[in-house]
User: What shape does this take?
Amino acid sequence: MDKLLITGGNPLNGEIRISGAKNAALPILAATLLADTPSYISNVPHLRDITTMVSLLGRMGVEFIVDEKLNIEANSSNVHTFNAPYEMVKTMRASILVLGPLIARFGKAHVSLPGGCAIGARPVNLHIQGLRAMGADIQVEEGYITAQAKRLHGATLCMDIVTVTGTENLMMAATLAEGVTLIENAAREPEVIDLANCLNSMGAHIEGAGTGTIRIEGVEKLSGTHYSVLPDRIETGTYLVAAAMTGGKVKVKKTDAGLLDAVLLKLLEAGATITRGDDWIELDMQGRRPRAVDIHTSPYPAFPTDMQAQLTAMNTIASGVGMLTETVFENRFMHISELQRMGANIRLEGNTAIINGVESLQAAPVMATDLRASAGLVLAGLVANGETLVDRIYHIDRGYERIEEKLTQLGAQICRSH
Ligand code: EPU
Assistant: This one.
C-alpha cells in the first residue's frame, strides 16, 4: 500500500496550478448518461474517483475516449446495463449520482445503497424521496435501490437537509421529466452551479442554481456538449493552508478566487496577507506563526466541511486556542487522534474540537482514514519535526492530483513509497 514520507520544516514557496474540481467532474460525468450524442469534458482531474466513475459508466455501455490531457469524450448512445454494483459503490459513494440520470433517460436503475463511511452514516433517503415524488417506483431491498418509471413528472421538492449530491441527482432527473420541478432548500455549492451550467449547455432548462430554489423545466431530450469543469476550491484551499502553516508564500493559479471567500477570511484572520485576481490567489505568511481561528462548518457559502481537517491541522500549531465545530457530518474527526499522536493538544466535546496550539508537532507514523483527514495529516507532516509516514494514502489519491509533485514543486520534502 502506498505511503507518503514527509520531512517537515520547509516553508512552502512558489506557484502551482489547480486541477479541475473532483466534486463537479463526478456529477458532470454521470450527466453524460442523459445525452443521446457524445459529450466532450475537459479540465477533468486525474484522480482515482474519476477512474472509478469512468469504469462504472463504462460497464453500463458508455463509450469513452480519453486523450493525453485527460479530455474525456463520453458517448452514451449504446447504454445497455443500468446497474451500479456494490463492489463499485462501496469504493465511491458518488456512484449514487447515476441513479437520477438512469431513471430519467432509461426508466430503470439498480443501484447499490452506499452505506455508511468514515465520516458518518450518510443516508440517501432524500434522493429516493425526491425521485418517488417525481413518479419513480422505488424498492429498497437487499442493499439495492431498484427504480422504475415511465417518464418522470415535475414536482415540488422541499429538501429537509441541504444535500449536495441529493440536489444534483434530482436536478439531473428533472431535466428529462415532464413539466416543472422546483427544488426548495437546494444546495448552493459552486459544483451544483457547474453541473447546472453543463446540463443547460446540453439543452436543459435550469434556473436558480446557486440559490436555495432551483427551477427545472423538463425537456424531451438532451444532446452532447463541450464543457470545461470548474477549478477545485478545496484543492486550492488546501495548498493555501499549507502555505499559511509553514510560514511560506504560495501563488495558486488556474483557480477561481470567488469560490473561497469563507476560507480566505479565516486565513486573513490567521494573519496571512492575501492578494487575488480572478483566477489566482497569493498567500504570504512572511514566516509568521498563524493565529488560531474558530470555525463552524455549514453548507456553502459558509465554511466547507471539506476544509475542516486542514484548518484543524493549522490550529494545532497556531498561537492561541481555536474552536472548531463540525455540523455537516457527525463523525468527521478521525484525524484528531492521529494529530494527537503527533503532539497536538486537542479536546473533543461533542461535535466541537478545542485546539490549543503547540509550538511544534513531532513526526509519527499516522494513518489516513478518509480523503480530507489525510490532507490534514499531510499538512501536519509538513511542519512536524522529523519524518512523518502517512499510511493508506489511497484516500488522498481519490481527491488530490499528484499531491507529492505539487508539494515538491513548492519546496516540500515529500516522497511516495510503496
Ligand atoms: N443527508 C441525509 N440524507 C440524504 C442526503 C444527505 O441525511 O439523503 C445528510 C448527510 O448524512 C450529511 C448531510 O446531509 O449529514 C450533507 O450531506 P451531502 O448529501 O451534502 O453530502 P454528499 O452529497 O454525500 C458532497 C461531497 C462531499 C462533501 C459534502 C458536503 C461529492 C461527490 N461529495 O457529499 O465531499 O463533504 O457534499 O459538502 O460532491 C470530499 O470531497 O471529500 C467529500 C466528502
About this structure: The CA atoms of residues 233 and 260 lie 6 Å apart.
